């Protein structure tokens, strides 16, 4: 499959808006849950930006870009993997391993720049985004 016709783009954009909207509903509580423990840790006080100085458009924009390009990758590779829930799970896990887990393993072996718990919380957050997005993009509709 590709994005050759208007119908393909309409399907892609519909899935994109569903995936992005679903993820934004999940991401705010998930960010709070994962990173609030680190925010109040006195040893990491200089690592985090104060809440009053955060420009909230940045996390939303980063999620938007990631969900969009994940959709492009899944849509272009769709003919080579299984459709449905299994295909979405396999694609999400594969993308997470290649994009997040493997680089963090490498970074943790060679540097001590970030605390392990923060990196693994970030990996979990990004992997959840990839898994949710892949599942939504991989589900096949009746008219395809």
Automatic annotation (TrEMBL):
Annotated TM spans: 12-34, 54-76, 83-106, 118-139
Keyword Transmembrane helix: yes
Domain of life per record: Bacteria
Keywords recorded for this protein, A-Z: Membrane, Transmembrane, Transmembrane helix
Name recorded for this polypeptide: Uncharacterized protein
Organism (species): Leptospira perolatii
